[in-house]
């Protein structure tokens, strides 16, 4: 639930009390307006990308296929968090049920894990397009694109099942930081999965872009270099923002989790 910038107080009759800025109504209204604006912009932007990609035959390419997947993922991710935040800004009784908390935990982990893999897949698509332009359509066949997308979604939701089940095995808690028992095994397991779902895809992205960079340097025309840069710049920006925040949030050693919890 830390995605919502809320702190859970205690577990009482199957509900969690959500704290945050409830003692500052003016700040709640400011945050409500900010979150609502960002949420609406996210809905409109991603819906437009998906619609245009489907309606324009010229955009029926692997790049826009994966971009549509990413847009749909972002729609699901923001919708799983945004409305709950907006409702709680207005409610006096700021609580969330145990079941809703578990559901949000599972969905957030699943979509976040899926995005890790999907961004790596998109980097491979850019590698094939720039480094092997003549064989691009052969390499990135429709069957391969569907398979790579299915693997991204399937691995993300499978990882979330493992994480959620292990977290729910803790007594009366929906999050590791709320547990009142030794959570070292859970923390070690979380760290291991974070390495697999964060560092491994990031490594693949780095390798792909090292080949892309070498290929771009061999392009003689400035126009060709500019075109290659434009096809990759937006993806690199998303990768930097996503992996930067994800690694800082999740890729901590078990000892760091313990220190944070002790504070």
Automatic annotation (TrEMBL):
Residues 45-263 form the G-protein coupled receptors family 1 profile domain. It is a multi-pass membrane protein. SUPFAM superfamilies: Family A G protein-coupled receptor-like. It holds the Pfam family 7tm_4. Keywords: Cell membrane, G-protein coupled receptor, Membrane, Olfaction, Receptor, Sensory transduction, Transducer, Transmembrane, Transmembrane helix. It is found in: Cell membrane. GO terms for molecular function: G protein-coupled receptor activity; olfactory receptor activity. GO terms for cellular component: plasma membrane. The chain crosses the membrane at residues 29-52, 64-85, 105-124, 136-156, 191-212, 233-251. Belongs to the G-protein coupled receptor 1 family. This is Olfactory receptor. It comes from Naja naja.
